[in-house]
Amino acid sequence: MAESHTLQVELVAADRVVWSGEAVRVLARTAEGDLGVLANHAPLLSVLVPGVVEIEQTGGERVRAAVSEGFLSVADNRVSVLSEDSFLENELDRSTVESELTAAREADDQAAVLRAEAKLRTLQS
Amino acid sequence: MAVSLREYRAKIKSTQSMKKITRAMELIAASRIIKAQQHAAAAAPYARELTRAVSAVATFSNVDHPLTTEKDNPTRAAVLVISSDRGLAGAYSSNVLKEADRLAEKLRAEGKEIDFYLTGRKSETYFKFRSRDFVTSWTGFSDKPEYDDARLIGETLVGAFAEDNDVDVDVEHADDAVDVQPVDELHIVFTRFKSMLSQEPDVIRLLPLEVVEGTEAPDEADVLPLYEFEPSAHEVLDALLPKYVNSRIYYCLLQAAASELAARQKAMKSATDNAQDLIEKYTRIANQARQAGITQEISEIVGGANALADANAGNE
Is B229's CB within 8 Å of A111's CB? Predict the structure, then answer.
């Protein structure tokens, strides 16, 4: 396998490709804890918990996205982040997310609270 | 004669407005098919990656998961029937329902009891009209299904399957109002979109899962790397499979939506053509009636003039 310094990243939601492109680093929160993926990472299939995915592009710019439960797969410098719901930072609106969080807390829906908190964290960079 | 002429004109007019309506519906269906196909294309990357991941786990670990294990003697099967919300789509809904009946008969012959789960108002009314039992139905999205619809259906059905198999799955979105019976199998009846001209009702068995799918397995050339699983292969599979089921259901809903729209477009096209034929026929009859009226009037005038001339000749 040729050595490479970049990763091909695909951030995929159930009904669309949210973001795709080249990156040098991907940060995500897995069931085991935070995980950083650099180029030439060993093949990995990991379970994601609701959280923030941060993609550092080759130019140093960062793309941040909120994901719900999902998966991260790494193979041959291709990183796929799969999640049923996934939103980029600029697709989120603070007041909507905050009302989602309040609604989830009132309904005592733990999973929804986690998802809303992940979205909120995405906004607080 | 004048009366029937007026009648025919009225018929032509109403047929013309019907034709306008069917023509509009044809065009709407045609434009929505394009959207439905775009949705299907947008959903493809997720389905592809998920299939890859599931194949990877299945290939590199010999984990037995309840969702993939067949029971020795299954006694109860769930059948999900995907039909449309609205009619005017030719035989679309009745084809799906016929296929569902065939499947039900086959399963009953194998000694299984059947729980029907329905989507689309057409199947709901079909079952209600015949006073047949079904567990629950979901309606209102047949021509533009969203992922959330598939998730709701998927988690309800996986919940029904899991109840019987001691699987601990995350079913937070499931319909709490539905009183599900545990089932051993899950089949889906939907319409496969083959082309704009041909859509066929089809059955797939979703659970227990057959992970290696002939049609959608990744290319052989595309050798799967030796993955590490975090936290463990079993836990990854636990989380993957319900999502995989949802994604399969979403795929079926999208196929069904595209098929419904194609069937509607075809039905509306032939309705428009029929209306055009009727208009031509009525126009001919109306023209004949008009001509007959004119001929009669002329012969009346000529007859009257002749009678007058004869009377005058007699007087002289």
Answer: no
- Whether residues A26 and A71 share a domain: the answer is yes
Q: What range does the domain containing A36 cover?
A: 7-88
Residue of B nearest to A31 (CA): B231
The reply to whether residue A82 touches residue B49, judged by beta carbons under 8 angstroms, is yes
Q: Check CB contact under 8 Å for A46 and B230.
A: yes
CB-based contact A73 B226, cutoff 8 Å: no
Residue B53 has, within 13 A of its CA and on its CB side, a CA count of 34
A62 belongs to a structural domain = yes
CATH code of residue A31: 2.60.15.10
**Cα four-point dihedral sign B15, B21, B24, B29:** negative
Q: Residue A60: inside a domain, yes or no?
A: yes
Cα of B8 vs its chain's centroid, Å: 38
The C-alpha of B40 sits at a distance from chain A's nearest C-alpha, in angstroms, of: 8
- Inter-CA distances, A92 with A65, A115, B32, B148, Å: 9, 13, 28, 18
* First and final C-alpha spacing in chain A: 36
**Which of A1, A8, A9, A15 is the best substitution to test chain B (most B C-beta atoms within 10 A)?**
A15
Q: State whether A96 and A69 are in the same domain.
A: no
Which residues of B lie closer than 8 Å to A, measured between beta carbons?
Answer: 39, 42-43, 45-46, 49-50, 52-53, 56-57, 146-147, 150-151, 170, 172, 224-231, 235-236, 239-240, 243, 246-247, 250
Domains assigned to chain B: 21-216+234-269 (3.40.1380.10)
Q: What local confidence, expressed as pLDDT, does residue B170 receive?
A: 47
Look at A84-98, B10-24, B223-237 and tell me which has the smallest mean pLDDT: B223-237
Do residues B260 and B143 lie in contact, with contact meaning Cβ atoms separated by under 8 Å? yes
B99-135: per-residue pLDDT in tens? 999 999 999 998 898 999 999 999 999 999 999 988 8
Is residue A1 in a domain? no
